[in-house]
């Protein structure tokens, strides 16, 4: 496709944290960005003062959610070059105390929504030789007792990344993933953890992160942006940990 218009990106979960940082980073790099999320107010904050970011309030788990998101991007920009599957929800619970509804919500958002979004976007991405970026977790490479459903859903997305990379390579579409470790985002608040529980989790994460600090959303956004650049054209199927060394410690 001719570069008559700026490259276009869709970033889900763009209202806060990694999604917000990624939307802004891609926009700074020259992308027109459709920032997708469930809540209008945080999306407006993401797009504030940035005419290159357009907020779209949408639920990616809704039956028409993925098609609506892709259609909105194509209607506005006429093309789609990058899909960042970042929207995610976390939750805990031991197997013996399984909450099926909570488990289903996690898998709907963290696994099935990226599958359906990639399916909806693949033709548009093939037209631009574009990139799918899945945001997973470095915990998916290890055991996480008490959050097994979350870890399993993200590990499945790692596997899909590798399979899609091989499947879509003949069509010119690259598929990569970033696997964040301990990052300073509101996900703990959104998952319902108390301040004391969040502090305990952070203490544990810090103790198991060789870099000696909690990561910033911008650390992950940098990795995503670099993986989307034309210079990364020979990189596909990779799952890149962005975790301060936690996965290898």
UniProtKB/TrEMBL annotation:
GO terms for molecular function: oxidoreductase activity. Pfam families: adh_short_C2. Residues 7-186 form the Ketoreductase domain. The keyword Manganese does not apply. PANTHER family: EG:BACR7A4.14 PROTEIN-RELATED, ZGC:101858. Keywords: Oxidoreductase. Transmembrane segments: none annotated. This is NAD(P)-dependent dehydrogenase, short-chain alcohol dehydrogenase family. InterPro entries: KR_dom, NAD(P)-bd_dom_sf, SDR_fam.
């Amino acid at each position: 496709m001719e570069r008559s218009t700026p490259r276009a990106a869709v970033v889900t979960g763009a209202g806060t944290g990694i999604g917000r940082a990624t939307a802004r980073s891609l926009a700074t790099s020259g992308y027109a960005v459709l920032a997708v999320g469930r809540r209008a107010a945080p999306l407006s904050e993401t797009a504030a003062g940035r005419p290159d970011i357009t907020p779209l309030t949408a639920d990616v788990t809704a039956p028409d959610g993925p098609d609506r998101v892709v259609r909105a991007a194509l209607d506005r920009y006429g093309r789609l070059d990058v899909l960042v599957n970042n929207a995610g929800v976390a939750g805990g619970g031991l197997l013996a105390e399984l909450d099926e509804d909570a488990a289903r919500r996690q898998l709907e958002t963290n696994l099935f929504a990226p599958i359906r979004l990639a399916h909806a976007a693949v033709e548009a991405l093939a037209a631009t030789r574009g990139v799918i970026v899945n945001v997973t977790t470095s915990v998916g490479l290890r055991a996480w007792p008490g959050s097994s459903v979350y870890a399993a859903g993200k590990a499945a997305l790692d596997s899909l990344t590798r399979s899609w990379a091989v499947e879509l390579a003949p069509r010119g579409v690259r598929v990569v993933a970033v696997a964040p470790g301990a990052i300073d985002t509101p996900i703990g608040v959104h998952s319902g953890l108390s301040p004391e529980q969040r502090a305990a989790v952070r203490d544990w994460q810090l103790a198991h992160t060789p870099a000696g600090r909690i990561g910033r959303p911008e650390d992950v956004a940098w990795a995503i942006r670099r993986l989307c650049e034309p210079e990364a054209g020979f990189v596909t199927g990779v799952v890149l940990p962005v975790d301060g060394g936690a996965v290898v410690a």
